[in-house]
Amino acid sequence: MTVDEQLERYLKKCAARGGCGERTIQNYRINLLTFLNWWNGSDLKQLTEDDIDDYIIYLQELDAIGLTTLNNKLRDLRAFLKYAHSRGWCEKISIKLLNVQEPDIVPLTDGQLKEIYDACMMKKTLDRYRDYTIMRLLEETGIRINECLNLKLDDIEGNVVKLRQTKNKKAREAYLTPAMKKDLNLYLEARHRFMVTNEMKNNGNLWIVTKGPTMGQSVAIGTVQERIREYGRLAGIPVRVSPHTFRHTFARNFLMAGGDMFTLQELLGHATLEMVRRYVRLFNRDRQVNYFKTMENHQRNKKRNNKPKFP
What we know:
- The chain is mainly α.
- Helix content is 59%, strand content 3%.
- It has helices at residues 3-17, 22-39, 49-60, 67-86, 110-120, 126-141, 145-149, 178-197, 221-234, 243-256, 261-268, 274-282, 284-305; strands at 156-157, 160-163, 172-175.
- A hairpin with an 8-residue loop joins strand 2 and strand 3 (172-175).
């Protein structure tokens, strides 16, 4: 079996047993082909840990690649070689990831959210109200942008959103607050009028393209990502504004309101608590502000009630 055939066997295994989506499998393929094309070997049994070290040096010398991306490539390579070793295709090879400082996660403040929404709604068009409602849903539920854009009309059941196409292939639910439900209903009413006016058959897509040759079809993720970035730019927001920023914002708000991390894990759809623990760790800064304000009040009260008494 050639190396290319072994790679395809591994990717097929990932798709069948790992519950990986098409996009994830494609990323695996790209990352592993980066290594195999560099290595240019014909038999994995010839691979050594020295080759891995040389590959890491090669990646480090590429100007366009950061440490996080480098580690992603190494992580995918490590999983592939572990599988290859289990099948007897290569010797056991140890791959250690490089130490990478965790990037800052900066959620949006309530004021910044209002500015972004105001920038979005400067024009009263259906595509703007669609974008506004998408951002509001991301803020209120913390769901991923892919999960959001894959929603169908039938996935909305009262105050419950049925997430059927998720990253880990496990269906889960998100919930609508009364304010979010009101915003969604207003969009749905506008969407219905648009479909009737344009004599378009209802296709069940929740978020639709409003102009051009694909009018009425599901809006593309790249379109939404770019438009959200543009609203952040128009609002003059100094931090990165993306669909994932809204997910971070939901996590921060949920924790600061007293939510527990186990419920947050379920709502976000994380397989482990690793990312949720990171949220807890990062947003300690917010709790520190509350701590010092509370303790300052406590110290002031203590001084008033415990004035020294002189004989």
